Amino acid sequence: MDFYSELYNNFNKSNTYTAKVISGKHFGGKLLFHNEELIYTNLKPLDLGYIAAIKEVTQNNKGQVISYEDSRIFCEPITKKPAIVICGAGHISIALIKICKLIGLEVTVIDDRPSFVNDGRQAGADHSICEPFISALSKIHSDSSTFFVIVTRGHRYDTDCLREILQKENAYIGMIGSKVRVKRIKDTLLAEGYNEEVLNNIYTPIGLKIGAETPEEIAVSIMAEVIEVKNRSLKCSEFPKEILNEIIGESFENNPTSLATIISRKGSAPRKVGTKMLICNDGRTIGTIGGGCVEAEVKLLALDVINTKTPLLKTVDMTGIDAEADGMVCGGVVEVFIEPIF
Amino acid sequence: MDFYSELYNNFNKSNTYTAKVISGKHFGGKLLFHNEELIYTNLKPLDLGYIAAIKEVTQNNKGQVISYEDSRIFCEPITKKPAIVICGAGHISIALIKICKLIGLEVTVIDDRPSFVNDGRQAGADHSICEPFISALSKIHSDSSTFFVIVTRGHRYDTDCLREILQKENAYIGMIGSKVRVKRIKDTLLAEGYNEEVLNNIYTPIGLKIGAETPEEIAVSIMAEVIEVKNRSLKCSEFPKEILNEIIGESFENNPTSLATIISRKGSAPRKVGTKMLICNDGRTIGTIGGGCVEAEVKLLALDVINTKTPLLKTVDMTGIDAEADGMVCGGVVEVFIEPIF
After folding, report:
1. Distance in angstroms (rounded) separating the CA atoms of residues B112 and B117
2. Model confidence at B290, in pLDDT bands (50, 70, 90)?
3. Chain B contact for A132, CB < 8 A?
4. Is B226 on the interface with A (CB under 8 A)?
5. Partners of residue B330 in chain A, C-beta under 8 Å
6. Are B281 and B302 in contact (CB under 8 A)?
7. Which CATH number is correct for B83-233, 3.40.50.150, 3.40.960.10, 2.40.50.1070, 3.40.50.720?
8. Whole-model pTM?
9. What confidence score (pLDDT) does residue B248 get?
10. Which of A208, A216, A228 sits opposite B104 (nearest CB)?
């Protein structure tokens, strides 16, 4: 089984880490770790010094380039976009589901009313549960990266949801409601013995204060708040699941592709280290590494890499005179590693 | 020509105002004003006192109920959702177009590259212009409610766009760019003689600060900022164009419908005065007046109104014991006026 198949199998687990040799003797070498154990490499023979050098930086939890002997190695923790669980499938939820899918989150919607859950599915939810909220939530496995949004049709259901969710690992709990309604729910739970600080950490009234009026505007305010919380502690790029799906062969009909990754950045380049773009030999792409000038150039190089089947490390300097002439001074310098996928 | 046809014809003009008699002798009477002139009424005979009473409040620019003799009249300025012009059709724009259409804005996208403009059309843009930015913008008529978003592929094009847009009426100018790039553009324009305060009013770097990383996240941050600016001075509900289109007969296949409007509100009801929902006789709806308990009840009443062809004014008290039993204490009291459309 190859590197990306192994990565795909470990994608939903945390503590997955990759390292790619981007220059030097073992140029093109790849290593995949899970829970600090090496589970795949194409390096032959395997110099254990690579492993030691890589393990020194895994705790940093961010994409970075290290040196080992004559090689440079791009090390990267693999983080997937988080899951979001939406309780209630009314107007706000439907709009929120659509925006969450645009952002790339994995969406679960819960409601006890079949036609509403069906609307949620139509809107794009990955998973849907049509059951009373308490039993539905008891079936959900969450972790410290899961987002919970409570937007049911009444405060009794909101309260039921909150009690269940407070017992689950989560990155965020947001709850709809007027100040009056929210206070009533918090007071109820306080009287039941729930911890006051935990209750105060609930994001409620939900969403950034942007004066949102309609359900769609409220959905945008919630999405903005979720993004803010998600990215507050985000040190490395989330690996887009759709790229991995393509690599495993789902939509580009097994056409040859290459994968471009930003492995270092200086100055004001738009996208951070770890950002990826997949290029198909017919020019179609998934993801973006910043648009404009960088992307156009990288796309051409990526098409070459598909033909040569040889990886390439390229420095793209966006502060140059050529870029100026085209009106495309973005500022900054990025190194992009392009690897053939076959 | 009837009331809603006249309203449809005047919908894109500002200073359009409606008044509906919701109780008293002329219950069901309607008046439509444009630029302070009466252009439609079904009141016969027409007591000019109505006009005088209504004109006293048009300056308030918000939905409100007034009294005249034994009648109550719901007066309402007609505001449509604003237009947004997006310069550039790259990754951020494509995501932004989709979210703008979810929100209900009228979207124009401009780019000089045909395939990119086509992507913008596919994403849902209402209008698209494939020309150099300067000539494209010169063709755009804007007013004080138009939003401009500049997200082209390079700072020269951004600057070209900005020069054109600064000469146009607008509600908002937002421009993408790093601090370095944005400063460079502002300095260029300052040196050309543009007003410093005007330049400082440009929203740049664009979007709310939510740590957005991907184009889709940036689009959400821009949408949130646009909503905040749009609603900052919004005193009355925007009249949803899709409801007017339905009334004029576009999609409900001329099935009978009724229109529900919130005409007054006390307490913590979720939606403001002027909010509308159209109900078709087969149960389909467009828009929402708050979801949950209120909406379910209003929907049933609206179906009755379709049958009786008689308007109805209903007070919905959401603080009652019945609502409590269903877990649906929303709080607040609303009056909803439901009128048959035929």
Report:
1. 8
2. confident
3. no
4. no
5. 154-155, 178, 181
6. no
7. 3.40.50.720
8. 0.92
9. 86
10. A216
